[in-house]
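Please, structure for the following, as tokens.
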Amino acid sequence: MIKPPALEPGDTIGIIAPAGPVNPEALNRGIAELHRIGYKTVLADSVLSQRGYFAGEHVHRAEAFLSMLANPDVKAILAARGGYGANYVVEYLSRPPVLRRLKRLRPRIIMGYSDVSSLLLFLQQKLRWVTFQGPMIAKDFAAGETGYDRELLEQVLARRSSEIHVRSNAITLRQGFAEGRLYGGCLSLLVATLGTAEEIDTRGTILLLEDIAEKPYRIDRMLFQLRRAGKLRGVRAVVFGEMLGCAEGSTPAEELRPVIAEALSGVKAPIVFGLRFGHTTGGCLTLPIGVRARLAARKNVKLTLLESAVGPPSLPRRHSARDAR
């Protein structure tokens, strides 16, 4: 794994909209929160653009991301929100001439969730970059410190600690211990990669799965498809998010328990439910994709990151015209 430089107080965070259109008021609240906790921000030119259910033209969203990567002052790139459309950005970035440009750029902290899972997994698999399932500007940061876990955010993005304990109120569905690399994101986006050049590789992973507003039978269908595609074979553990709105009568934990038990009946690995990553009720966690982790699923669930997700802070360098080409 190639680790991005650590984020330090006073660093500049670039804000992009790789998927759906952004609410300006929510965006401003999220920016104000980032400023309050000590960071500077810079907006992509197209961040408030809109074309139907996209945040502007596909090429503009992709080029905005590349421009942020080429800017030496930007130390992290965060998604304003999810929505739909990051798959078009991935398609653009995967074109050979563009991919060659991308490979010349230095890694940065890239963070988001939901539809942004497509971009995070593309960067992780194609470039071996550590990426980050974590809070977004116009949602989690916009809610203030109740919307995200600030302590974990700073530990993961700024500290080069070899061991970080993730606070968890998740419940155990199947007991056990596991070690593997953290991987995954929004369930429907993971399933959407099957049969494409960006098909997910889940071998040896602690697999993170979350989604929002999907009916139980749809969750069943997606888990079944992962199983039939062999993507649950060789996983070390499966960790579900809160799965907000994925129940029709009771709570998601109660209603999805039998769905998960049947769909994952052949998976001989620990399974937990309710970790606060992705779409959450608050306190959104920052989880690095690609690093080694340990899961202990007993009466209490303990997730431990076994290595740092970031490297030494980057030194300033001159911005060259070649960086943007």
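Residues 117 and 271 are 21 Å apart (CA to CA). The chain has ten helices and 14 strands.
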